[in-house]
């Protein structure tokens, strides 16, 4: 991948996140071919200029192939299963960039198998959702050979605003898990103080407006404010997915002998919310579970509240 020729891109997995990210690469002018297990979910990319293929192995001759699937078994299926990316008799991608959220053990396995085929492998989990992607605020943690990262950094930079090489091997997986544990802990804390303020007679809109303008406000608290104010929990990241990441984070904490009492307590609250039936909604429903535990009945405030992403999306 030298000179002025743009590398060819393969993309495996065009769910909500994968579709949005592949679209950014198409908009940046890259030649993209895409595969998804349910072909109809990938086909709209054809209208944006992508080639749609029938099997992951059809992408084996691409320079760089991105993978974004849901679980370790899915990663194994699209790489070494029947018709998998690494099953071609001759061709193999120059570089594989895996953005799935999987364990370090699964990542290391696929890295070894990719190396056997002469492919460089980067673990590249991302932080964001389709709205964040559209606003250009996605962040990416990458681990693997530094020289390989340097080669693909311009492509990764087309996906969002922050691309960070965090080390060799599988350490990017730990970075992503640590990030998601923090995400859950912060959301639970935000739910607790918001319910406290409401119980004391302060509207959620007023309290969160104050918070967001203070030094404690953040891109995340602003982004979650519309959901908290208007009780719109259209899913971006569900409770079962958050629970899975807490399990992975606490397992890593046990292995590395790092006490995480706040994370452990939050994991139990997440489990309680799932037991109360919150399985398909956005993880922001931690607010409703906190209100239930406090004996507070919440109703939508039906307010026009900005998320903080609108200017970047529309401007």
Brief digest:
This protein is α/β, with parallel strands linked by helices and 315 residues long.
Account of the protein in words:
- α7 (171-199) crosses α11, α8 (204-213) runs antiparallel to α9 and α10 packs antiparallel against α11.
- The model is unreliable at 311-315 (pLDDT under 50).
- The protein is an alpha/beta fold.
- The strands form two sheets. The chain has a six-stranded parallel beta sheet, with helices on both faces. Strands 7-8-9 form a three-stranded mixed beta sheet.
- The relative contact order is 0.10.
- The protein has two domains: 9-169, NAD(P)-binding Rossmann-like Domain (Rossmann fold); 174-314, N-(1-d-carboxylethyl)-l-norvaline Dehydrogenase, domain 2, CATH 1.10.1040.10.
- It contains 13 helices and nine strands.
- It starts with 8 loop residues before the first strand and ends with a helix.
- The protein has helices at 16-27, 39-42, 72-80, 104-116, 130-134, 146-157, 171-199, 204-213, 219-230, 239-256, 261-275, 286-294, 310-314, and strands spanning 9-12, 32-35, 51-52, 64-67, 95-98, 120-123, 126-127, 139-143, 162-167.
- The radius of gyration is 21 Å and the shape is globular.
Q: Could you give me the name of the CATH homologous superfamily of the largest domain?
A: NAD(P)-binding Rossmann-like Domain
Mean pLDDT over all positions: 94
**End-to-end CA span:** 33 Å
CATH class of the largest domain: Alpha Beta
Largest sheet, spatial ordering of strands: 3-2-1-4-5-6
- The CATH topology of the largest domain is Rossmann fold
Low-pLDDT parts are: 311-315
Number of strands: 9
The secondary structure category is alpha/beta
Number of helices: 13
Helix content: 40-55%
Order of helices and strands: EHEHEEHEHEEHEHEHHHHHHH
Strand content: 5-15%
Spatial shape: globular
Q: Mind telling me which CATH architecture of the largest domain this is?
A: 3-Layer(aba) Sandwich
Radius of gyration: 21 Å
* Number of separate domains: 2
The description of the largest β-sheet is: 6 strands, parallel
């Amino acid at each position: 991948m030298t000179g002025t020729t743009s590398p060819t891109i393969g993309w495996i997995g065009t769910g909500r996140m994968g579709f949005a990210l592949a679209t950014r690469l198409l908009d940046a002018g890259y030649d993209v071919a895409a595969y998804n297990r349910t072909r109809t979910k990938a086909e709209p990319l054809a209208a944006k200029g992508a080639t749609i293929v029938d099997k992951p192995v059809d992408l084996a001759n691409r320079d760089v192939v991105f993978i974004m699937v849901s679980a370790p078994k899915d990663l194994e299926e699209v790489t070494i299963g029947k018709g998998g990316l690494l099953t071609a008799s001759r061709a193999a991608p120059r570089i594989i960039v895996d953005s799935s959220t999987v364990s370090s053990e699964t990542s290391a396995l696929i890295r070894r198998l990719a190396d056997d085929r002469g492919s460089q492998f980067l673990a590249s989990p991302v932080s964001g959702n389709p709205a964040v992607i559209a606003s250009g605020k996605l962040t990416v943690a990458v681990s693997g050979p530094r020289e390989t990262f340097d080669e693909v950094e311009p492509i990764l930079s087309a996906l969002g605003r922050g691309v960070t090489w965090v080390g060799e091997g599988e350490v990017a997986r730990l970075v992503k898990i640590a990030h998601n544990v923090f995400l859950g802990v912060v959301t639970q804390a935000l739910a607790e103080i918001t319910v406290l303020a409401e119980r004391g007679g302060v509207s959620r809109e007023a309290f969160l407006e104050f918070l967001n303008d203070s030094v404690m406000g953040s891109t995340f608290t602003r982004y979650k404010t519309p959901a908290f104010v208007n009780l719109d929990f259209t899913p971006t990241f569900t409770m079962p997915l958050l629970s899975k990441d807490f399990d992975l984070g606490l397992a890593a904490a046990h292995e590395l002998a790092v006490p995480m009492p706040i994370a452990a307590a939050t994991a139990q609250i997440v489990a309680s919310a799932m037991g109360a039936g919150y399985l398909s909604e956005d993880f922001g429903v931690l607010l409703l579970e906190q209100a239930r535990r406090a004996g507070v009945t919440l109703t939508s405030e039906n307010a026009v509240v900005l998320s903080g992403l609108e200017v970047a999306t529309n401007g």
